[in-house]
Amino acid sequence: MDKKFQKIRDDFPILKQRINDEPLVYLDSAATSQKPQAVIDAVADYYQTINANTHRSVYTLGQQATDQYELARKKIQNFINAQFSKEVIFTKGTTDSLNLVASSYGEDNIQAGDEIVITYMEHHSNLIPWQQLAIKKHVVLKYIELTSDGQLDMTDAVNKITDKTKIVAVAHASNVLGVTNDIKKLAQIAHSHNAVIVVDGAQAVPHQPVDVQELNADFYAFSGHKMLSPMGIGVLYGKKELLEQMSPYQFGGEMINSVEKFNSTWSELPWKFEAGTQNVSGAIGLGKAIDYLNNVGMEEIAEYEQELVDYALPRLLNIKGLTIYGPHDSHNHNAVISFNFNNLHPHDVATAFDMDGVAVRAGHHCAQPLMKYLGVVATVRASFYFYNTKADVDKLLQAIADTKEFFRV
Ligand code: 7TS
Questions:
Q1: Residues in contact with ligand 1 (CB, 6 Å cut-off)
Q2: What pLDDT digit, counting tens, does each position of 351-365 carry?
């Protein structure tokens, strides 16, 4: 499998660069993925050949832009197996999608006495919208605990989700712990109490096949830029019957049916939630990214990334003075690996790695309550995608050895 994936690197022009006179080893795909030439070309081609505003022009370019934009929606529908294309709302990204649900569904359906349940492993974008809604509505926000190895404590989930719960908001995959959560099971628990489940899929959709109907997610959010496409485009999937009863999130052009002086009516799904000029080139880029991912195969991507983790994790665990957060068993660990070593500050570690051309993220990873829960201020995080190789893992191991030598630890 390594050979096929080795060749894939040629499709990503940025990976050919040298950083500090070393070949670039990009290990920050959890923050954003790199883009293949096909996606870069699709965006350029859009601007060179069919750029026009969508849904408002009868002339040829306007029609072509609209067709391509709506084709991208269809590709996303198939990619996540949504039942209807109108269940796919274009947004700016995961953060925007989750704010949409909190502002619209949350505002309309939460009342005093209700509870919202999230987890300790949430990214701020699946935490603050619920925290602020809870403050505004005077409702209780509950956190599902983690087990000692950083997995979601499903026994605690059963205890925390009750008949008072109206919304369960949970990451499909953590951006820190390398953990993938059992969304199907959590959805069952939520639904048995008549709560809806909102899933943050930012770290899952790029890496594994996702079927929103199989998961039975009520809402599912993800970002294009973490799955090969441009920044500023993302998706909110929502079940049709929920989206239909929800109020618009933003008001303005394109989202209306008719506007009178003192009242207005709204457009149908999905356009009710797409106010103003949309990121058409981004949507087309995301469509192209999905073509690319489908061509490689999501099952194969998942298997290959597992191979990388199986290779990396035991080697990292072998390093004296290095602490890994999240499960130590590689079969329970996805391609996000967070660690600290020898009391070195993560920023110093990441700066030292950069001297070797190795790009990793250091910080709280927009998960401050999780950092507190783990008892750390920050971690170093290496995150892999299918354009990484075992040679990249070896470079990471070398960077760790060099850093230890540099700081004499
Ligand atoms: N949810 C998770 C689990 C994430 O990892 C991220 C981004 C988001 C939501 C927000 O996505 P956005 O596209 O709206 O910004 N995570 C990271 C990260 O871990 N480092 O940089 C961005």
A1: 30-31, 93-95, 123, 125-126, 171, 175, 200, 202-203, 223, 361, 365-366
A2: 999 999 999 999 999
